[in-house]
């Protein structure tokens, strides 16, 4: 594993899966499958978006790798969002997601789903945050001095903003450490 102690630029953090990162839709499907297996019902699009953000963050603080590229996590008014996952589930509105993401009639999967600590990161996040509502996770993602707060100027500028716009990696790291009490 690459030493990230001297990395300050979020864009330089190594990615899982041969530094390619995971397909966000495949990660979403895996999170949904694990939620279903752990009796976590009523996962909405907003809830899933925040779980993706926190799984990525938890995996980073434990393994010093991102699961998905920081530029694939946009910062919108209601917090972190992966646009591909959002659009796949937007027809659900605020209702619970009932199906996995499919592309061309096939379920989207990820080859590394059970390797490299991915499942362990998801389970740890669900244990810590799975019972929180989408609104509570949204509010948590808006933590003062956290990544979303910093990049969007406390929500005053959300146009074309992403996690990759964060200039100081230690802000993201401190946010995740506070959320997960590590």
From TrEMBL:
InterPro entries with a match to the protein in the record: SocA_Panacea (IPR025272)
Pfam families: SocA_Panacea
Domain of life of the organism encoding this protein: Bacteria
Domain Antitoxin SocA-like Panacea: residue ranges: 48-148
Name assigned to this protein: Phage-associated protein
Gene source species: Candidatus Deianiraea vastatrix
